[in-house]
Specification:
Elements lengths: L1 E6 L2 H9 L8 E4 L8 E4 L1 H4 L9 H7 L4 E3 L3 H18 L3 E5 L2 E5 L7 H16 L3 E6 L2 H13 L10 E3 L5 H5 L12 H9 L5 H6 L2 H8 L1 H10 L15 E12 L2 H21 L2 E11 L5 E12 L2 H15 L6 E9 L2 E2 L20 H21 L17
């Protein structure tokens, strides 16, 4: 038996703990409307007006003029999430966290009635941590996740649903049959449109379609859809996930043309990526930049280094070279980002090994390289203690245009 847990309007619930006067009011956590802010989370009272997560805050204010905007406190959200996940891990080691406010847990081997266990868990998170949550319980991850969504969707009023939906084993197909087909994993807008052309609107419609026909039309995806429509899912609980990439992006509050500001952004992003690599004891070998122009045209460029790194200087120099290939002076930028992939473990394994970084080949000797590494380590430690804004490196001399 699998439980899917989803914290109800999580960011908003944490903000209501800080300011109880927000309860029952339409409010949203996110950025300012005059700075291209978006809704990160919104209260259930705001949702009744049509406000939704990922909506532009300016749009949210238009449809709900009385909307209260709350600036996000993401450190507090992270701490609250860790407290919840701690409760789950105390119950069973078979926990798969899939986001800051969502997780699966396998309770198959735990004693006692499943629904009673789930209600106790829900109650402890609500009463001890002050956070509402909705649970879906089923024999597999797919159906448990959909059960949570159905439960949350049945909520009424301005408060969190606190739903608990149990799908007994053997009733999966019956439970899924009347639901819209786009609730299934892997059925996005394009696939849903193709299915609609075939007269398939509900999951039951899909389940009744011959499996061979779906395979002929959709290939391997057709087989997966056929199985899922019948409530069959063999996805395991994944307790550890490998980090595939680390990146930092900035969407500017206004389009930026200033070269120094753009390069400072690259430098700060490279420093933050390096800090995260070092914290996770990882190194990366492929560096990527992402740019978005004011017309929303987005492009990426990447290059692979001769050896993996976790150093900000190397990341910045590489990102800068990629940036120089696509940006022209005076061209406005809406979004800028730096990322690294091709990650391997061992962030500190080469610090005293005598290996040379890419940028050392440009005239830096090994002694200077070691000094740069020590400086970056100190910066990372200070930022970890006092925040990202506590200290940062300035642009290298060659990047200043006026001396």
């Amino acid at each position: 038996m699998i439980i899917h847990l989803d914290l109800d309007a999580f960011f908003c619930a944490v903000e209501e703990q800080r300011d109880p006067s927000l309860r029952g009011k339409p409010f949203a956590v996110g950025g300012r409307p005059d700075e291209r802010g978006v809704v990160a989370s919104c209260s259930y009272a705001a949702r009744r007006f049509g406000v939704r997560s990922a909506m532009a805050m300016s749009r949210a204010l238009k449809i709900c003029p009385q909307l209260i905007i709350v600036h996000g406190r993401y450190q507090a959200y992270g701490e609250a999430s860790r407290n919840v996940m701690g409760r789950l891990h105390a119950l069973t080691p078979l926990v798969e966290q899939i986001s800051i406010d969502e997780a699966f847990l396998d309770i198959s081997d735990l004693p006692g009635p499943v629904e009673e266990l789930a209600r106790k868990l829900q109650g402890s998170i609500r009463d001890d941590l002050g956070l509402p949550c909705s649970l879906g319980i089923a024999s597999n991850k797919l159906v448990a996740k959909i059960a949570t969504e159905v439960g949350k969707g049945s909520g009424r009023g301005d408060g969190p649903p606190n739903a608990l939906t149990l799908v007994p084993p053997g009733t999966e197909a019956e439970f899924l049959a009347p639901l819209q087909v786009n609730l299934l994993w892997g059925v996005g807008p394009k696939t849903a449109a193709r299915l609609s052309e075939l007269g398939i609107q509900t999951i039951g419609d899909l389940a009744r379609r011959p499996e061979v026909d779906l395979i002929q039309r959709f290939g391997k995806h057709g087989l997966e859809m056929s199985l899922h429509a019948r409530g069959i899912d063999a996805s395991p609980i994944v307790t550890v996930r490998a980090v595939k990439s680390i990146s930092q992006e900035t969407t500017f509050t206004r389009d930026i043309r200033d070269e120094t500001e753009l390069r400072h952004t690259l430098l700060n992003q490279a420093g933050e990526v390096a800090r995260l690599l070092q914290k996770k004891q990882l190194r990366g070998i492929t560096v990527k930049i992402k740019l978005r122009w004011p017309d929303f045209t987005t492009l990426t460029r990447q290059t692979t280094l001769s050896r993996s790194t976790d150093q900000a200087e190397t990341l910045y120099r590489t990102a800068e070279q990629l940036f120089d290939k696509v940006w022209r002076p005076g061209k406005a930028v809406r979004l800028l980002g730096v990322g690294v992939s091709g990650l391997v473990e061992g962030g500190d394994c080469y610090r005293n090994s005598g290996q040379l970084e890419l940028w050392q080949a440009e005239g830096q000797d090994h002694q200077i390289a070691e000094k740069e590494r020590r400086i970056q380590t100190v910066i990372s430690e200070l930022q970890e203690r006092f925040g990202k804004e506590a200290l940062s490196k300035g642009l290298p001399k060659k990047d200043f245009k006026d001396g």
